[in-house]
Amino acid sequence: MSWETVIGLEVHVQLATQSKIFSGSSTAFGAEPNTQASAVDLALPGTLPVPNAKAFEYAVMFGLAVNAEIGTTSHFERKNYFYPDLPKGYQTTQLEQPIVGAGYVDLNLSEGRTKRVRIHHAHLEEDAGKSLHEDFHGMSGIDLNRAGTPLIEIVSEPDMSNAEEAVAFAKQLHAIVTSLGICDGEMAQGSMRFDVNISVRRPGEPLGTRTETKNLNSFRFMEEAIKLEVERQIDVLEDGGKINQETRLYNGDTKKARAMRSKEEANDYRYFPCPDLLPVILDEGYVERVRQNIPELPDQRAARFVSDYQLSDYDAGILAADRQLSAYFEAAANNGQAKLCANWIMGDISASLNTSDMSINTCPVTPEQLAGLVARIADDTISNKQAKKVFELMWSDGGSADEIIEKHGMKQVSDTGALEQIVDEVLASKPQEVANYLAAEESKRKKMMGAFMGPIMQATKGQANPGMVNKILAQKLNALAK
Amino acid sequence: MAIDKHEIDKLSRLARLSVSEEDSADVADRITRILDLVDQLQAVDTTGVAPMSHPLDAVQRLRADEVTELNQREAFQAVAPNAEQGLYLVPKVIE
Fold first, then answer.
1. Which helix (H) or strand (E) holds A477?
2. ipTM score
3. Where are the domains of chain A?
4. CATH number for the domain whose boundaries are A416-481
5. Is the pLDDT at A194 greater than 70, yes or no?
6. Model confidence, pTM
7. Of B63, B73, B88, the CB nearest to A50
8. Cα(A65)–Cα(A178) distance, rounded to whole angstroms?
9. Out of A17, A142, A270, closest to residue B87 by CB
10. Residue of B52, B88, B89, B90 for testing the chain A interface, max A β-carbons within 10 Å
């Protein structure tokens, strides 16, 4: 009998504000330890929080983008626990009246399937600092730069039933928050972190006991962690054991997970309303103004790419998911060769960026250079093979496609007369192959043309237009066959 | 509503307070009296009354998103019990 998997996600998204949620400290990533930790962030006695208006605006933008109700009255609660990177002894968060109520996102899955995942709610809260457990004479080092960074925690309903859906949901959220510009989306820096709740059950049975795998910060780790945990739970249950409700940690390097703490010793957070903060009231007019300023969302952009540039749904979906990639694409696609541009961006450019660990923002080839390159492919000046060479030179040395083609004499030979002559010469030098070709059955001939293509390309130093050579060669051979 | 010694143990552990064996009964008794007061409040019929999250009848003011705090690490770390390489040092805690 088969098993059903039930997955829900909790997603922490760092908001891209300049300053912290309750203090005027900078949120810039990578500063020297504790240089961005003020008296409020350190929880020195007598300090009071003053909330950042931008954090509310960003949370409302998210809510509107996922079709959610906006809580026009927001309260904050204290979630109490002791840990050295939480100097107040509590996290200021929202429990009773979160700013974003129930909403949903629609996912496009493989093979054209779609799925709606409901969002239970999303609330505003502050991030904690970081603990460094390297050896400081047996002590831990605490960096509070991150303490007080504004977060929204997005809580999904348990609507996902496998790793593919969970990853698609995570990617969709990433696309939404980066398109809105409310999060930089830098997962390696912890800008988005995923906690995955997983349980399995027999079809039709009530929900099984769930475990929570915390703090996954890449889509790949998330997929691996889910598959591993589902397998583990099924193994335990099929061996007659039972699942403990526990928190687990996945290690992406060792590809292993371990239990962190079990529910029995879990914290009792003793939430209560934060007396330092008054209710925050956002009126309908405010919400409406935020709504007017919502930029184009990934789904809308994908639909536009399909209608304006005739891209496939798949290509449009990939490009539209990333605002910067989309901007790059649109800047290049101005030349009317959208499909070719899309192929290059998703192919050679993405691959080269990956290899050199760069992002589209720092791509050495500008959209204008790409447009120039694509134009020379489209008008048959260069072959695809030559284009790759031009691209490599562009990437390493700069320059426009025309300059590179000129400098390296890479112009494709498309002169019919010249090509015909070369084809004739090659055919004359290979009488045996020609005889074999003519003796072969029709169905096998196409493949045998390869024997002539190589020498022809060699004779033109790879600069012959392959499409034209093919045509001329076919014509000449057909003429001989008659 | 009475609270027993077992709950006092749990609460003091969560709050990182050490309540001695001999004080435990007295603390339980005093917390029970506070909870009795809460019971009394909860007996009031509040149908149609919106919950009050803050005793002040006021609305929170928000600040503009600007960096206004300067780096005062040196001053803060001068009064910290232990700091090294810019980090605050604390007894090792690993989950």
1. helix A466-481
2. 0.88
3. 4-287, 296-407, 416-481
4. 1.10.10.410
5. yes
6. 0.81
7. B63
8. 12
9. A142
10. B88
